[in-house]
Design brief:
Layout lengths: L1 H28 L9 E4 L3 E7 L7 H28 L9 E13 L2 E11 L4 E15 L2 E8 L2 E6 L1
Parallel strand pairs: 2-3
Antiparallel strand pairs: 1-2, 3-4, 4-5, 5-6, 6-7
Length: about 160
C-alpha cells in the first residue's frame, strides 16, 4: 500500500510540473514580435527586417546586443543580395528576396535569460527557416553586469 501512495504522489507532482511548464511556455509564446521591426531594409531586390521582442526591453544590455547582432546580420544579407543582383539578376526570378530575423524572450530563471532567435529567408530558389536558443546570464563584473552568450555553434563570449 505504501508503494501505491508514493507512485501516486510522484505522478501527481510530475503532472503538476509539466502543466506549469506548458502554461509558462504559453505565456512567453505570446511574446511574438508585434508592431514594426526595429531594422527594415527594402530595396528593389530584397526586403530585410529585424525585430526584437518587446519583452526584452527590461534587459537593456541584452536588447542592445540582439539589436546589434541583427543589424550586422541585416547588413551582411543586404550586401550579399546586392552583389548577387549586380552579378546574376536571373537568380532572382523576377521576385524580391526576403529575410526576417526575430528575437523573442523564451524564459527568465533567476539571473538567466533565454532568447529564441528565428531566421526566415526566401529566395527564388529556396526557403530557409531556422531557430536557435541563446542563453544569457548576468554575471558579476566591475563595471556592472555583462551577458554571457552560450551558443552551440560558437564558444561563450562575454559582452559588457
Amino acid at each position: 500500500m505504501i508503494g501505491v501512495s508514493v507512485c501516486r504522489k510522484f505522478l501527481l507532482s510530475a503532472f503538476l510540473i509539466s502543466a506549469w511548464q506548458w502554461l509558462s511556455s504559453l505565456a512567453f509564446a505570446s511574446d511574438a514580435p508585434a508592431g514594426k521591426p526595429q531594422i527594415s531594409i527594402e530595396k528593389q531586390y530584397v526586403v530585410i527586417s529585424v525585430t526584437v521582442g518587446p519583452a526584452l526591453q527590461p534587459f537593456a544590455a541584452l536588447f542592445a546586443d540582439c539589436l546589434a547582432e541583427g543589424k550586422a546580420w541585416a547588413n551582411e544579407k543586404n550586401s550579399d543580395s546586392a552583389a548577387e543582383w549586380r552579378d546574376n539578376r536571373q537568380s532572382f526570378g523576377g521576385m524580391q528576396w526576403s529575410y526576417n530575423r526575430d528575437y523573442t524572450l523564451r524564459s527568465v530563471a533567476g539571473r538567466h535569460v533565454s532568447v529564441v532567435r528565428r531566421t526566415h529567408g526566401s529566395t527564388a530558389a529556396r526557403i530557409r527557416i531556422s531557430a536557435s536558443t541563446q542563453f544569457y546570464g548576468t554575471m558579476p563584473h566591475t563595471n556592472g553586469s555583462a551577458f554571457a552568450r552560450v551558443s552551440p555553434k560558437r564558444p561563450t563570449t562575454v559582452r559588457s
